Each structure stands twice: as C-alpha cells, then as structure tokens.
Description:
The protein is mostly helical and 358 residues long. The protein is built from 19 helices and no strands. It has helices spanning 2-7, 9-30, 37-49, 57-65, 67-80, 83-110, 113-124, 127-130, 139-159, 162-175, 180-183, 185-195, 200-229, 233-245, 252-263, 266-280, 283-291, 311-325, 330-353. The longest helix has 30 residues, at 200-229. The radius of gyration is 21 Å and the shape is globular.
Amino acid sequence: MKDFLIKNKVYIVIAVFILLSIFVSYYHIGYNPELKKDAKEYYEAASFLANNPVNEEKQLGRVLTTPLFLYTSIFVNFFVNDYSTSFSIVNIIFYFLCIFAFYFLALEIYKESKVAFLSTILVVFNFYVIDPGNAHLADMGGWFFFILSTFLAIRYINTLNRKFYYLSIFFTAIGVLFKEYGGLALCNLALLICIGDFPWKQKIKDISLATLLVLLPLLSFHTFIYLKYHYLYIDRYLFVGQSAIEGAPKNFVLLVKILGWLFSFGWFAFCFGLWKEYKILDNKRLKILLAILPVTLTFYFWPAITQRLGVMFMMWLALIAGFGLSKLKWYMLYPFLGIYIWFNFNIKFYIDKINLPF
C-alpha cells in the first residue's frame, strides 16, 4: 500500500485537489440546482430528445451542437430523475477526466512532472473551470475531448506511432458531438502534422484522412437534422448573434476585461514562463505550443464572448505559466499559488466589487 501511494502520489494529490475544488464550488462559491438561461435550453433540448418536444429554435440548436452530452444526460436521468442532478453528475465525471487529461498533455509537452503538476494546479483551481454554473452545461465534456485529442496528436508526432493518430481522430469525432470545442482538436492535429517529421505527401494524406473521418459522422448527423427539422448550424450561429446584439458590444476593452479575469494572477506566471521559454528556445517545444495556440483563440469569433468560452486559451496559458512557476524557489512559489487559489475561490465576490475604469 505504501509503495502504491508513493508511486502514484502525483495522481492522488491531483484527485484530492479536484475533490477540494468540487467542495468549494458547491458550498463556498454556491451551487444552485435551478436551471437558468443556457442550462434551461439544455434541459428543454434533452426533453425534446426524450419525446417531450419543444418546438423552439434554441432547442434545436442545442440538439444539433451537443447531442452526445444530451443523450448521456438522458441516460443518467433514468436513474436520478432530475436533470439538474444528471447534468451535474456528467460534468463532475468530465471534470475529473479533463484535469487528468490536461496533466498528461502538459507532461507530454514538457517531459517534467513538476511542470505538468504546477500547470494542472492553475487549471484545477481556476474559477471559470470550477464555476458551479458549468455543472449544467456541455462545456466540460468539450474541454475534455479537446485536451485528450490534442494530447494524443502530440503523442503521435513525438512517437510516430499510428495508434495515437487514429485515437486522436476517434476522440475528436466523439468530442465534436459533445460540444463544438471537441472538434477543434482536428485543427491541432493538422497543424501538428505540418510541423512533424513526415514527408509532405504523407502530411497531406494524414490531414485529409483525419478531416474525412471527423467530418463524415458530423455532417451525416447535421444532414439528418436538416432533413427532419430544416435546421442548420448557421441558424444556430445567427440566433446567438442576434441574442448577442442585446448584450455588451464585442470590442477590445471587453476582451481585455474578460482575459484579465480569466487568468487573473496567472498572467504574471505566464509572462515569467514566456521569458524563460525565450531564454531556453527549445525549438521543438515552441513549435508544438505555437501549433496548438490558434484554435484556443477562436472564442473571439463567436458572436458573444465570455470567460467560459476562453477557458481553452487559459489552459494554453497555464502550460507556459506552469513552466515559469517550476523555475521559482519554494518561498516564492507557495505564496503565489496560495494567492492564485484564494483569489479564484473568491473571484465571484470580487468581480462585482471591482469596477475597472474602462
């Protein structure tokens, strides 16, 4: 038993941190079982699929973009008979999976358990990951499949083992049916193949095959929805765009505010890590980091931007920030992590009190 604990201490500590974050999210930040706004749409979409039709455009939008999340929640609901609970159970499971997938992603990139562990701490305690509002949404599953598929893609170019290529495609094809985020891993796979040590003929072949295998089931499902309900993804995009007009205008000032709250004190660690990366200049690692960056910025092109949509970008920042933190002495590292965690646990209370002068 002692040997097992020593051998797996990193995983055990991460699991403890996950449980702590769930506890804080539920009791301190404040979980509310009432289904509101987007969560209500998921409930109505699940009801639609469970033969309780709601003939509204926004329900079809959720059915089109998150069918596997909805069907998974419907399955769980057979046992708990409460959609707020079933949504929460599904997301708690995906939260565990997402955090461990991120740890292995960081480990695959940096090859150092300390860097991977510190990067994971920044993600596991980030408010916009543990926000109790996520308990009723489909985002967590999308994040998990995006991170897992990206990890497998990096594993592929590092080992040249075709198994990881096909696994990345497989989980991307599943992930895009949980939430659109999951499908963005296909772009990561394509860009990683471009920087890989393959002949260009093989690169084109691999990218084409991956695109076909991911898009075939997705487009088949979208075709089915269109033939049955005459509803397309562009309809969903335009619906969100129309709703966004009624909210805050999307501009640079709003983006600065969103990114500031998104990573808070983590930005200092990121800047330090970026400086350390510049000094070391590990070309292979920098190519990988740059290859997986573009898709994390796509949140800005969605009609309405929020911190939740930028979480994948935060995870990318956390990779470099964790590297920077690994270079600190313990007497600087521990206080920083303490401040970061404390701030994220209480950010909900500060965001209403701190009025930025712009």
